[in-house]
Amino acid sequence: MPDRLPQKLRSDAKDNRDRILDAARALFSADGLDVPMREIARRAGVGPATLYRRFPTKQTLVAEAFADQLHACRAIVDEGCADADPWRGLCLVIEKICELHARDRGFTEAFLSAFPGAPDVAGREYTLKAVAGLARRAKDAGRLRSDFVLDDLILILMANKGIHTRSTDAQVMASRRFAGLAIQALEACPHHAPLPPAARLATGAPAGA
Amino acid sequence: MPDRLPQKLRSDAKDNRDRILDAARALFSADGLDVPMREIARRAGVGPATLYRRFPTKQTLVAEAFADQLHACRAIVDEGCADADPWRGLCLVIEKICELHARDRGFTEAFLSAFPGAPDVAGREYTLKAVAGLARRAKDAGRLRSDFVLDDLILILMANKGIHTRSTDAQVMASRRFAGLAIQALEACPHHAPLPPAARLATGAPAGA
DNA sequence: CGGTAACCGGACGCCCCCGTCCACTTGGGT
DNA sequence: ACCCAAGTGGACGGGGGCGTCCGGTTACCG
């Protein structure tokens, strides 16, 4: 559905298209979203015109390039929601998503409204709703702190994005530790102090949990 | 000491210099470090040449512009260290520094080695050492979790940097909540799960706490 | 008050990115 | 084998940032 109806493309055109997507994925992952379009074209071994013809705007390219990750993301959430223990499911979601983001810098930017008002990339809203449900259950089970709010998750994801290291390995490791800390922060604890008030974040997400 | 020996500058030159620094501070705070030099010059009402003559490289300008914040930073740490209760002191440091960073986007970038190998900006090492001591005491007091590592603090600061919102107010609010969560994560708790291993961060800080 | 060195800012050349146009090439149907 | 529309990449003009040079201006000292 993010895919344009696969109009009959000539075989060579299809090839080029694929190579462009590969190049884009590689570069976005490594360097973030603001690689020059030129660079992507060069890496794919095509001219700029070809790139622009196939993907008129960078947003199109980004959306297409990250379709996989978005599905992975949704799969993770689904998996977490399926877990019998909602708290364990939520932890799983946090860990996995943080790792996913750690491995792919561009995806993080794309995911976190780097493109303001992106056309609800592959059911972001739906996914958020699912997580909200999961959180609800985790709260009812008494494992998730009661003053948790869905925006806290966004906050954590944004924060995770702020972590930068030299190598991808270090990045993943740091992200893992961060996720651990985040989970610790969210877990209900008899003597925990109340949190400062939640701030409305820029995302279109509803704030209730 | 980051200051060039204040060679006798002609009065007008001094004026311009000051106006440049003001402009730089304002722009860096609002938009981060990658404002064009041109923009700063324009805002200061001077030509590009003047700017470049006074601050040959952007790094020079940044260092000079953030001298205040760096002192504030150090003051915060000192204040925290002076607190009789080391845990309370540490919390204070986290809260205040997160807020400081939330209010000044450029400073965060400058602070977190945005310029790799910046010449130990105003005793960064010293400050880190002080915090390490504070953490040590907080641990001994049994309030800080025993598997805390100084790099965790860097991690939290980096993470805090990842948080972006539309307005400064929202930013501060979000940062406050984040700091609250971070503190929660760091507090010793009888039944908390062990954390994933700490990753060595890019900073030159020693990893032990 | 006058001279000089310090100082100024506009203008220049360089490089990189963007998005588009167009003359050539090539896939694939007949 | 032929043809032509779909497809291609090089080239172009525009815009913006960078760092530097230079002819005019101005503070300060005697």
UniProtKB/TrEMBL annotation, chains A, B:
<protein>
    <submittedName>
        <fullName>Transcriptional regulator, TetR family</fullName>
    </submittedName>
</protein>
<feature type="domain" description="HTH tetR-type">
    <location>
        <begin position="14"/>
        <end position="73"/>
    </location>
</feature>
<feature type="DNA-binding region" description="H-T-H motif">
    <location>
        <begin position="36"/>
        <end position="55"/>
    </location>
</feature>
<dbReference type="Pfam" id="PF00440">
    <property type="entry name" value="TetR_N"/>
</dbReference>
<dbReference type="GO" id="GO:0000976">
    <property type="term" value="F:transcription cis-regulatory region binding"/>
</dbReference>
<dbReference type="GO" id="GO:0003700">
    <property type="term" value="F:DNA-binding transcription factor activity"/>
</dbReference>
<dbReference type="InterPro" id="IPR050109">
    <property type="entry name" value="HTH-type_TetR-like_transc_reg"/>
</dbReference>
<keyword id="KW-0804">Transcription</keyword>
<keyword id="KW-0805">Transcription regulation</keyword>
<dbReference type="InterPro" id="IPR036271">
    <property type="entry name" value="Tet_transcr_reg_TetR-rel_C_sf"/>
</dbReference>
<keyword id="KW-0238">DNA-binding</keyword>
<dbReference type="InterPro" id="IPR001647">
    <property type="entry name" value="HTH_TetR"/>
</dbReference>
<dbReference type="InterPro" id="IPR009057">
    <property type="entry name" value="Homeodomain-like_sf"/>
</dbReference>
